[in-house]
């Protein structure tokens, strides 16, 4: 037996530096993360008896997140444009609590919120202040989940500026405004969750408005976390495909919903798994969550270390995209 062990040791010993270097880098990064002041130094986030406000909660990931927070004892305030869907969601939350015996003393509540209608800080203040009165103590939003979103399909050449602005209004300006107006109501031991996208790090063809908006929201919250409240947890999610029906609601170049789901989207993560993963990362005081398969993660590295190769790969991918520019032959 010892002969076999010694044989394996002699066989694999020359290769130990190849494993030691990445393991050492990983260990050093974890040590630095623990030593550096910031959210990671705080105790785990206990969601029981905390107030959580979710935008875009009527469908998809926002809806699944409401269940995750509610079963952990939080008071959830769900917002979206569809009051019927929000009312049904709250009824289902209460029914699930009764069925599964969740220990939650708080009634879920809902309110109408359209990020494109908020305007500026002055016009939106009353509506956002009304949301704060729904909190457990009438003023504190412990966790803000910026989840509402809109996508699009179309080439840079064909997509009208109106569509570019519409997507940016929802995915960027709306969340910036809600965050600004609620920032003083979020305690230092609270958190902000930003549901971004892998496209906030690597843009892909025929999704220009969506990719641009996700790059913008990533940049805003990177700036915010580096300003005067470095201990406030800001968790940004760089998600790959999630099976939410999001693609079917994407706008085409004429401003109409696609009505057909992307094949990649249907093969994506389930909303239940994605919501559970996000909440676990939040509880563990993470600040970045890359929620995508390994092959998609490679694209981020290529963007910095071999960008021309990545751009060529994305171009080849775009050759099979059904939303290629109608002007390319002109």
Automatic annotation (TrEMBL):
Gene Ontology MF annotations: oxidoreductase activity
A single Gene Ontology CC term: membrane
Membrane-crossing segments per the record: none
InterPro entries named among the record's database cross-references: KR_dom, NAD(P)-bd_dom_sf, Sc_DH/Rdtase_CS, SDR_fam
Swiss-Prot/TrEMBL keywords: Oxidoreductase
GO BP terms, alphabetized: lipid metabolic process
Ranges where the Ketoreductase domain occurs: 50-245
Coiled-coil blocks: none
Function per UniProt: Putative oxidoreductase.
Similarity section: Belongs to the short-chain dehydrogenases/reductases (SDR) family.
Record-given protein name: Ketoreductase domain-containing protein
């Amino acid at each position: 037996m010892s002969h076999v062990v010694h044989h394996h040791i002699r066989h694999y010993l020359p290769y130990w530096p190849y494993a030691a270097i990445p393991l050492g880098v990983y260990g050093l990064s974890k040590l630095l993360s623990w030593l550096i002041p910031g959210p990671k130094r705080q105790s785990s986030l206990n969601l029981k008896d905390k107030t959580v406000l979710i935008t875009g909660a009527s469908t998809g990931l926002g809806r699944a997140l409401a269940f995750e927070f509610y079963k952990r004892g939080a008071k959830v305030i769900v917002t979206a444009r569809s009051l019927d869907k929000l009312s049904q969601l709250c009824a289902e939350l209460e029914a699930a609590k009764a069925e599964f015996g969740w220990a939650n003393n708080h009634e879920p509540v809902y309110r109408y919120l359209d990020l494109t209608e908020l305007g500026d800080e002055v016009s939106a203040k009353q509506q956002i202040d009304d949301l704060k009165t729904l909190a457990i103590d009438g003023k504190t939003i412990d966790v803000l989940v910026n989840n509402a979103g809109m996508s699009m399909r179309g080439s840079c050449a064909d997509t009208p500026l109106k569509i570019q602005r519409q997507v940016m209004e929802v995915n960027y300006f709306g969340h910036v405004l809600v965050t600004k107006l609620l920032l003083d109501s979020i305690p230092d031991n609270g958190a902000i969750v930003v549901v971004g996208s892998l496209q906030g790090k690597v843009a892909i063809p025929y999704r220009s408005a969506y990719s641009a908006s996700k790059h913008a929201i990533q940049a805003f919250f990177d700036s915010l976390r580096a300003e005067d409240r470095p201990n406030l947890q800001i968790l940004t999610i760089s998600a790959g495909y999630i099976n939410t029906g999001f693609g079917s609601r994407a706008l085409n170049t004429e401003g109409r919903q696609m009505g057909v789901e992307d094949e990649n989207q249907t093969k994506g993560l389930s909303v239940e798994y994605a919501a559970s993963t996000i909440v676990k990362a939040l509880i563990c005081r993470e600040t970045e969550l890359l929620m995508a398969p390994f092959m998609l993660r490679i694209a981020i590295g290529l963007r910095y270390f071999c960008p021309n190769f990545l751009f060529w790969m994305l171009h080849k991918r775009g050759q099979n995209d059904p939303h290629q520019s109608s002007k390319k032959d002109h």
